[in-house]
Design goal:
With 163 residues, the protein is α+β, with helices and mostly antiparallel strands. The protein is built from 8 helices and 4 strands; from the N terminus they run ααββααααββαα. Strands 1-2 form a two-stranded antiparallel ribbon. A two-stranded antiparallel ribbon has the order 3-4. This is Segregation and condensation protein B.
């Protein structure tokens, strides 16, 4: 939830200043720094979430397994994230194989990508880019928080990057 969304919750005449809300959020972040749950900033605002070192314990409480994504889907979303805006043809050229309509549909349904525009070439292919939901899912505040592509390539070559 963003500061603006929190501000909108209050009746107009009783609403605190946005800076007061931000100060309260900062105070909560500080208060929760030693707790198992913390208040974290993501692209769409702030959310409470279990700290990384507590995740294995919390996972034991829930039988539901997180969805498993295919290597092809993860490669596709990575290409979109690092190269956006890209067309399906661009993705296919980088991957060296065709990209199924189902895969693009899955990314659109999960709201990880959206059509930003259409390329001004014959056929007007869609240009895809990532969304705030993508950033939130991968716990990123912005695309700048992603590791440099060169770093990922080096890890992949060393066999340390597991997809």
């Amino acid at each position: 939830m963003s500061v603006a969304q929190l501000h909108a919750v209050f009746p107009e005449l009783e609403a605190p200043e946005k800076q007061q809300i931000q100060d309260a959020i900062d105070s909560l972040c500080y208060d929760y720094r030693q707790q198992a749950v913390g208040l974290h900033q993501v692209a769409s605002g702030y959310r409470f979430q279990v700290k990384t070192d507590m995740a294995p314990w919390v996972a034991r409480l829930f039988a539901e397994k997180p969805p498993k994504y295919s290597r092809a889907l993860l490669e596709t979303i990575a290409i979109i994230a690092y190269q956006q805006p890209v067309t399906r043809g661009d993705i296919e050229e980088i991957r060296g194989v065709s990209v199924s309509s189902h895969m693009i549909r899955t990314l659109l349904e999960r709201e990880w990508v959206k059509v930003l525009a259409h390329k001004e070439v014959p056929g007007r292919p869609a240009l895809y880019g990532t969304t705030k939901q993508f950033l939130d899912y991968f716990n990123l505040q912005s695309l700048d928080a992603m590791p440099p592509l060169e770093e990922l390539q080096a890890l992949a070559l060393e066999g340390e990057l597991e997809i």
